[in-house]
Amino acid sequence: MRPIVRACIFLFILAAFPASAAPVKELWPDLAGFDANAKESVDHAIWDAFVSKYVKDDPDGLNRVDYAGVSETDRKILGRYIDTLAGMPVTSLNRDEQLAYWINLYNALTVQVILDHYPVTSIRDIDISPGLFSDGPWGKKLVTIESHPVSLDDIEHRILRPVWNDPRIHYAVNCASVGCPDLIARAYTADNTDAVLSGNAARYINSDRGVKIDGGEIVVSKIYDWFAEDFGGSEKGVIDHLMKYATGARKQALENAKDIDGYIYDWSLNGVE
């Protein structure tokens, strides 16, 4: 095969598998069960202590993680916390406990992946997902839960999104990037998750990372494009969602908006500079 033909085929394949395409939302029945009457609670004190210690406020209003400062002892403690969660019969928990469980597990795994490959400038440089055109770590099976190997994509797109159908999930799961909603400096619990999700949404939407008013034009995070189906399935649906949490000039601009003028996202690592 001539080189030019091979090049054309390669470019065609790349076009068919865009790096920015969001995984589909597809329920995983095997891990969707729950016990509505369960009283057991999950102890997230280790994760709470970890993020309290290593998540730092940035002057620009972004929460950054001090990956370089994480001690070897705390890395091992983080690993034991993840192992403890993975060893739990999650489908025997009630729904509120499960939601906190999955969010904390997702974020803890993401931090662990960064630490295992640090230093990196972006999580997208950690190409450990299976497949020729792998991008990032999201497709890699990282833990086994109830005999099922589980990846970050599984947690987000096969469990959290389809089971809870709550757009605020996107303000909780952190992809270790500047453009992402913050990794908060506390653990999610069955008691605090609902209020924290709303607080996260308001904080992100009222930041330039979420909604930026630029010369009268409305530029929003690419999250609202990648996951438009979770935000009403249209630009109008996205605007309606944003208006629930926007304040001040942002809210006024959204009230007068007919459409969205552009999208932004920064894949730079959310590490302490």
Shape: globular
* Percent helix: 40-55%
Spatial sequence of strands, sheet with the most strands: 5-6-7
| Pattern of helices and strands | HHEEHHEEHHEEHHHE
Would you identify the regions where 5 or more consecutive residues have pLDDT less than 50?
1-19
Distance between the termini: 48 Å
Radius of gyration: 19 Å
Classify the secondary structure makeup into a structural class: mainly alpha
Beta-strand level of the residues, as a percent range?
5-15%
Mean pLDDT: 92
Task: Give me the number of helical elements.
Answer: 9
How many domains? The number is: 1
- Write down how many β-strands occur, each being a DSSP E stretch of 2 or more residues: 7
Largest sheet: 3 strands, mixed
Layout: helices, strands, pairs:
Elements: H1 3-16, H2 45-54, E1 55-57, E2 63-65, H3 72-86, H4 95-117, E3 141-145, E4 148-151, H5 152-164, H6 193-205, E5 211-214, E6 217-221, H7 223-226, H8 235-245, H9 248-255, E7 262-264
Parallel strand pairs: 6-7
Antiparallel strand pairs: 1-2, 3-4, 5-6
